[in-house]
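TA notes, week 10

Several of you asked for a full example with nothing omitted. So below is the full record: structure tokens for the whole chain, then the designed sequence directly under it. When grading your own attempts, check the secondary structure regions first.
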């Protein structure tokens, strides 16, 4: 009899007979743990309770109290339970794959008839029947030949293809049964369908999906579901989705007349006057903030010869995301190959390289509102959040190595002020450390990672480590916002780079009179204006801060005799920099208020006969039910101050 030594999280070890299962290990510890166990982690891998353990290993037993493992199993089992429910309802449907995704799962089906919302309700009901049946879940390891023969016999061509795709490297081909229904799966799974909470999941939608993501293959139907450990968590998630739908920047963009997109320019934005007002106001604010923080602003070409992209390394590593431009220069019948710039960094090095630089010139903080173009697959495009044409609030700090920490601290403080001004007070920092494939010595990486970490602490912020997530040439900081409904958005970055200055031969003269390479800190605060404006719209549900709102005030007449006074009020507001407009249409005031409230106008001033006589206005602010009557001078003074950007107050 051979033994294996299993080491538990507390450091204690016990010997067991080789081939023991995690379920048996749990039961050997205590009867209650044996009943509560749902899976294990063995040598860092998530392990089914039924799988044998054949060698010495570390082991941890999981119960439903372990959120990460419990949710993975619940969602994975629900994918199988849903597929079983579909085939019980419609036996001719062919099954494919059903992975776990964020908050839930999906499964792709081949069915001639499209699924309807009514079908989803029927599937959900059948799933609950299966869960309540508490059918056992069991697993076996089959040979490739057995698996293929089984699926050919049962008429499941997609499963035959999947088995053929599994590498023939000794990895087991696992078959799982949930009751009498069977699926190919690497596992792990729960031990019975009854362990899945039957009131904490919901089928959400159906979408088309090509088999294996290839448009040359069959179009399948993908059913999405979400699942949690308890009904309260499910309700909170559905409430969040409902709130997110209300805040969707595409919906609000239409209501506020901000922008549109059309098929003739995929991934490009047609900004309307209202939307462009937000854009330019935000850009003006960022320009002033950067200038005050010691940046010099530059502007670099849109179309650049491939030679620069080859020198920078982007041609080899990034070409598939670049828009290539071929030009027959001077009709020489030899096309010059250029590319629309996908990023600004190589061009900024070209600006740095003009003229001799001294250590006294460092740090040199260079900024550009750089217009970039990147090819994104059409399926990845999403409103103004994910586009092909965008403008970055890009910046590059050229500095000496001993200036990295101080410049990083300075940037974090700058970013914190910007985020605070824009209403984002909840954000975190993540430090991405050295990847396996990298350049530079461990000593250099130790120094760079320490500089970034120390800068965070010096600026008054903690950070989370992302092991191995840095670029091959240096570590980076990522700044992640949490919005009003709990969603996270990674926006700001700071990346340490000694590689690009080396490739593009950037140098400065040091105090010793010799040439030295600068370090380049790639940094962005907002990321791209397009995406950040989308985030802003959703954060504020369209009710943007007064200084940023494209339409700040509408002065609406209650009676036609007030029209002249309406125009006087508008002119008084415009004279102090407030964006004001008149509404003297022959409509009832309640109609006007509803219309402008839908358009998210922050302040509506109503003017009738009494207001004309007393030189006052009736003030209604967006989201408030109460109105107030104030003098014209008072409202002009108040709104003049509110219209100022935070840096100007």
């Amino acid at each position: 009899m051979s033994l294996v030594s299993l080491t538990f999280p507390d450091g204690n070890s016990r010997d067991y007979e080789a081939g023991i299962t995690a379920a048996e290990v749990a039961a050997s510890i205590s009867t209650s743990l044996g009943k509560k166990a749902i899976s294990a982690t063995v040598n860092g891998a998530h392990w089914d309770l039924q799988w044998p353990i054949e060698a010495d290993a570390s082991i941890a037993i999981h119960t439903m109290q372990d959120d990460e493992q419990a949710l993975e199993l619940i969602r994975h089992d629900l994918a199988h339970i849903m597929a079983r429910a579909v085939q019980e309802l419609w036996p001719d449907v062919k099954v494919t794959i059903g992975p776990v995704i964020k908050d839930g799962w999906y499964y792709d089906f081949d069915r001639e008839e499209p699924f309807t919302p009514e079908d989803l309700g029927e599937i959900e009901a059948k799933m609950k029947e299966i869960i309540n049946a508490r059918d056992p879940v069991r697993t076996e390891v089959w040979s490739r030949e057995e698996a293929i023969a089984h699926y050919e016999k049962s008429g499941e061509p997609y499963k035959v293809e999947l088995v053929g795709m599994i590498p023939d490297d000794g990895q087991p081909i696992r078959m799982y049964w949930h009751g009498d229904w069977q699926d190919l799966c690497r596992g792990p799974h729960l031990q019975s369908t009854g362990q899945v909470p039957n009131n904490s999941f919901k089928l959400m939608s159906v979408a088309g999906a090509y088999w294996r993501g290839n448009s040359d293959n069959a179009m399948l139907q993908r059913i999405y579901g979400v699942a949690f450990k308890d009904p309260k968590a499910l309700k909170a998630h559905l409430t969040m989705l409902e709130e997110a739908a209300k805040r969707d920047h595409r919906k609000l963009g239409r209501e506020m007349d901000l922008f549109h997109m059309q098929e003739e320019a995929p991934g490009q934005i047609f900004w309307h006057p209202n939307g462009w007002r937000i854009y330019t106001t935000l850009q003006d604010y960022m320009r002033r903030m950067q200038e005050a923080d010691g940046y010099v602003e530059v502007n670099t070409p849109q179309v650049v010869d491939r030679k620069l992209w080859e020198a920078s390394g982007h041609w080899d590593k990034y070409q598939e995301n670049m828009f290539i431009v071929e030009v027959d220069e001077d009709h020489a019948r030899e096309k010059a190959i250029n590319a629309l710039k996908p990023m600004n960094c190589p061009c900024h090095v070209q600006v740095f390289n003009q003229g001799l630089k001294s250590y006294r010139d460092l740090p040199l903080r260079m900024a550009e509102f750089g217009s970039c173009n990147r090819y994104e697959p059409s399926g990845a495009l999403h409103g103004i959040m994910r586009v092909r044409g965008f403008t970055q609030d890009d910046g590059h700090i050229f500095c000496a190595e001993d200036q990295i920490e101080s410049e990083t601290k300075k940037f974090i403080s700058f970013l914190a002020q910007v985020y605070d001004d824009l209403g984002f007070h909840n954000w975190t920092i993540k430090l991405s450390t050295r990847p396996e494939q990298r350049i530079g010595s461990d000593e250099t990486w130790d120094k760079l990672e320490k500089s970034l970490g120390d800068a965070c602490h010096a600026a008054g912020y903690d950070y989370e480590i992302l092991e191995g997530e840095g670029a091959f040439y240096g570590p980076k900081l990522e700044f992640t916002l949490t919005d009003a409904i709990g969603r996270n958005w990674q926006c700001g970055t700071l990346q340490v780079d000694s590689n690009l200055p080396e490739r593009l031969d950037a140098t400065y003269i040091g105090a010793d009179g010799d040439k030295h390479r600068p370090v380049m800190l790639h940094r962005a605060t907002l990321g791209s204006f397009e995406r950040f404006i989308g985030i802003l719209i959703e954060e504020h549900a369209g009710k943007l801060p007064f200084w940023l709102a494209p339409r700040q005030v509408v002065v609406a007449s209650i009676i036609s005799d007030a029209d002249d006074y309406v125009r006087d009020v508008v002119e008084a507001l415009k004279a102090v920099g407030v964006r004001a407009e008149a509404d003297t249409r022959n409509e009832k005031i309640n109609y006007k208020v509803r219309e402008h409230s839908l358009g998210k106008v922050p302040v509506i001033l109503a003017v009738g006969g009494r207001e004309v006589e007393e030189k006052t206005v009736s003030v209604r602010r967006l989201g408030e039910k109460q109105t107030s009557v104030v003098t014209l001078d008072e409202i002009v003074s108040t709104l003049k101050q509110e219209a100022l950007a935070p840096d100007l107050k």
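The first helix runs from residue 22 to 29. Use that as a sanity check on your answer.
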